[in-house]
Amino acid sequence: MDMERPDWFGQADDWWRAAAGADVARHAQPVGVSSDGKLCVLCSDMPWSVNLRLLAPHIASRLNVQRPPAVPEVSGIAVLKPSPPEVLIQQWADMVGVDLAAQVRPRSLADWGQELVTEADTAQARDQLAQRAPDVLARLRSVLPETSIVRLRESSLRPVWVLVVTSPDFSDRQCLENVLMDVWHDATQTAGPEHPLCLLHANETAADQMIEEWATSVRSTDLPTPPHVDTFTYLGTVSQGDADARRRRNEWLVGTERDLCVAFVVSEGEKLSLAELARESGAAVFQACMP
Predict the structure, then answer these.
(1) Where along the chain do its domains lie?
(2) Backbone angles phi, psi at 53, to 5 degrees
(3) For the residues 178-194, what does the mean pLDDT come to?
(4) In 3-state terms, what secondary structure has residue 60?
């Protein structure tokens, strides 16, 4: 992205803090202005980048209302992704070892670029990278002497990604909860209990809301080790009849790393378009019918 710092940019920090609020300002800083007039903002880590994308329209409106004299309106906020340097990604195998590079991947930066965030396929790979951290950092500094990265965060474990698709007429809560518990049990047996189960859904039907309620209930269970279950849904707006928005939503939900698709239908012959799209993309699809 083309970016510049015009003369008025010296006022941006105070202006940003007043419009965004102290809490957001601690985790997100303006760094320039894009060629199309957007205020470019860098966040301390990836979760704050996601939060700021949700808040961006509201904050942009406040920025324009509160802008100092001689400061033009901004056309929006561009949230910059705190990604690892391209050289690091390209030379990752040289830094961590060929044996480990296929099992642990660099994902993002945290703590204002000082911490490298990685994702491991297994707990063993996570522990191996921790053991090699001093050597990895030394190799990184030799390749990128000016790097801001000074430490590796303990690797998170790759989640098990499950797309859940529900019929508008599906209403059997017990059936849905039993199937989701079976999915969680299978995920822990296949990947291991430390790997989180991530459920994606379209947030369109009553059964989609049941998914959220089930995930909340299992997270608050009294078990010594409660199931690690997270839910995700598309953040954009999909208006009725907006085919392009629906296509973008479906493509995001199907994604590229889905381990399974579970389709809750009323009858065996019912076809759900999102489940069929997942099947076409190569995901395994399991169909659960109402009794």
Answers:
(1) 3-80, 86-156, 159-289
(2) -60, -35
(3) 91
(4) helix
Q: Which of 226, 228, 162, 154 lies closest to 195, judged by CA? A: 228
pLDDT category at 273 given cuts 50, 70, 90 is: very high
Identify the CATH number of the domain defined by range 86-156: 3.30.300.180
Mean pLDDT of 173-200: 92
Q: How far is CA 282 from the centre of its chain?
A: 22
Distance in angstroms (rounded) separating the CA atoms of residues 276 and 284: 10
CATH 2.40.50 fits 159-289, yes or no: no
Q: How far is CA 86 from CA 90, 93, 101, 147, 155, in A?
A: 6, 13, 15, 12, 19
Between helix 12-20 and helix 46-66 the angle, nearest 10°, is 100
Q: Is 37 helix (H, G, I), strand (E, B) or coil?
A: coil
Beta pairing partners, 43: 28
Please state whether the predicted TM-score (pTM) of the whole model is above 0.85.
no
Q: Tell me the pLDDT band of 223, cut-offs 50, 70 and 90.
A: low
Q: Could you give the strand order of the β-sheet that contains 76-80, starting from the edge strand earlier in sequence?
A: 3-4, 28-34, 38-43, 76-80
Largest CA distance in the chain: 68
**Cβ pair 290, 171 in contact under 8 A:** yes
Distance of CA 154 to CAs 132, 211, 217, 226, 289, Å? 12, 30, 28, 21, 41
- Per-residue model confidence as pLDDT tens digits over 31-84: 889 888 899 999 988 888 888 888 889 999 999 999 888 888 999 999 987 889
